[in-house]
Amino acid sequence: MANVKQQLDIPAIPSLGTSGIVYSQSLQNQNNGLLRLFFTKLVNSIQSVIGPRGGKYLNNPYGAFQSTVDQTATTANTAYAMTLNTTDYANGVSVASSSRITVADDGIWNLQWSGQFENPDTQDHDVRVFLKINGTVVTGSTGFFAVPSKHGSVNGHSLVGWNYFVSLNANSYVELWWETDNIQVTIQTYAAAGDYPSTASLIATMSFVSNLPTL
After folding, report:
1. 3-state class of 180 per DSSP?
2. Contact call for residues 155 and 120 (beta carbons, < 8 A)
3. Cα separation of 100 and 82, whole Å?
4. Residue in 164, 192, 163, 176 with CA at minimum distance from that of residue 132
5. Fewest CB within 10 angstroms: 47, 73, 181, 204, which?
6. How far apart are CA 188 and CA 24, in angstroms?
7. What is residue 99's predicted lDDT score, i.e. its pLDDT?
8. 203 close to 65: Cβ distance less than 8 angstroms
9. Distance between CA atoms of 145 and 158, rounded to whole angstroms?
10. pLDDT, average across residues 70-95
11. pLDDT at 7 over 90
12. Nearest-CA neighbor of 208 among 132, 111, 138, 70?
């Protein structure tokens, strides 16, 4: 009941014959056979979904994005939107205006992010990251962390990230915002070197969790 892409085949609605005024046993048997086949396929599809690995047949909305450019703050203790310029995967989720992670469907969504922070100063510096939904700050969403100072000739680095559950209506958007107490702190991208690949300055993924509760 599934094709090679692990998508369930939707059974076609049977085309039943129409009897005339006189009852036709052969037509009745034919219709019963078509209905039996249809409901058998339908039950098989439902059983596949509710089985132990049924989730592999579901096509949930999702999005995965990254930034391949450095992100800086021109003024200390001033908030800036984190930006994304590359779409890795998208199904019902998109990025608008470089920072607005926009969903096509109502629901509870899981937003996960990670940023590669760099500090070339000789002191640790604080960074704050928080959310805005449709341009409005989300109460309680701020996370605080410190980016370590330079040690010897090596700048301080921190790969920081966490996740949020957010309730969004269709066509709503969520943004990640950040600010730092020192403009030397940046969200940094790095080119490939040696045997390791390049580093994105920011990665964000958005996964559908549930439809919005109705109660």
Report:
1. strand
2. yes
3. 9
4. 176
5. 47
6. 77
7. 98
8. yes
9. 9
10. 98
11. no
12. 111
C-alpha to C-alpha distance for 147 and 183, rounded to whole angstroms: 12
Secondary structure (H, E, C), 97-138: CCCEEEECCCEEEEEEEEEEEEECCCCCEEEEEEEEECCEEC
* Six token digits for residue 7: 């998508």
**Per-residue pLDDT at 4:** 47
Q: How far is CA 160 from the centre of its chain?
A: 18
Percent of the chain with pLDDT over 90: 73
Q: Give CA–CA dist 16/30, Å, rounded.
A: 8
The answer on pLDDT for 69 being more than 60 is yes
Question: Which of 13-27, 78-92, 121-135 has the weakest average pLDDT?
Answer: 13-27
Q: Mean of the pLDDT values across residues 70-94?
A: 98
At 1, the pLDDT band (50, 70, 90 cuts) reads: low
Q: What is the pLDDT of residue 214?
A: 64
Please identify which residue in the block is written with the tokens 């998109």.
94
How far is the C-alpha of 133 from the C-alpha of 174, rounded, in Å?
A: 4
The SS3 call for residue 28 is helix
Interatomic CA distance for residues 20 and 22, integer angstroms:
5
Query: What does residue 27 show for φ and ψ, rounded to 5 degrees?
Result: -65, -40
Residue type, 21: I
